Amino acid sequence: MPSTDQPHGPLRSLDEWDDFVKSRYPEAAPGEAPGQKPFVAANADKKPEAFRDYRAEARASVKEFYRLNHTYQTREFVLQKKREYLARNKSRMGVWQAMEYLNTLVDDSDPDTDLSQIEHLLQTAEACRRDGRPRWFILTGLVHDLGKILCLYGEPQWAVVGDTFPVGCAFSPKVVFSEFFASNPDGRVPDYQTDLGIYEKGCGLDKVDMSWGHDEYIYHVAKDYLPEEAGYMLRYHSFYPAHLEGEYQYLMNGHDKEMFKWVREFSQYDLYSKSSERPDAEKLRPYYEDLIAEYFPPQLAW
Ligand SMILES: [Fe+2]
Ligand SMILES: [Fe+2]
Predict the structure, then answer these.
(1) What is the pLDDT of residue 7?
(2) How far apart, in whole angstroms, are the C-alpha atoms of residue 250 and residue 280?
(3) Cα 123 to averaged position of ligand 2 atoms, centre (Å)
(4) Which ligand is in closest contact with the Cα of 235?
(5) What is the model's pTM?
């Protein structure tokens, strides 16, 4: 199994990207549905000075991360990564084993204050459980970021995390730091310059290639064992331009639009379940081993 002890990119840890997303979509006030309103619409009644400029505030490392992501995520790159990883011949691991493997990811995050990867997965799942979500929903929370093991296969950070977006068509200006798309070679491919690009109106997201990252990977690893709703939650949980900004509707079909309700529901647990109270992995393990065995075989193809 390949391994690395380098962060492979400008971010101190993969969490630096998650934290930046959270700062852009602050948790809703009591009474408002969290994570369900586009950022601008939710703040439309605020005075202009109340708007924060997230691009200006972002740390240099976050900016550099997005510059690399937006420059190098081309359609050709995505298709190549799909050929490489969706054959799923890298490894065979059970879910808990994959969680422990992901936890070996060494980065510069502070072990005293930052959550480990396993702790983020358990906190997300526990928040779903506390809310009385169905068992498959809790399990989806547990596995949603396991695709980040791509980092351990040596993939750079910009090919593992980041807000995802379709390739093969025009980039939405609402993708954060969209100005960095100016250096993406796909900007010079004539077929990709319209809203629809190579796709047909309402063709459905299943026909659309998304920028490559941990979402698409875990979707393919887990999809045969979980309900369709869970598949959407896994595959599009970083597609913030669509599920929180309402972009790219013209590529969706009616079924996608219906299913995105689940992606938005899930987003609140991913973004807002972080707390300083650390989950006790060994104590929780028997409950989650049972839940894993209810849906997944002992080993999955990665
Ligand atoms: Fe994620
Ligand atoms: Fe997450």
Answers:
(1) 61
(2) 44
(3) 10
(4) 1
(5) 0.91
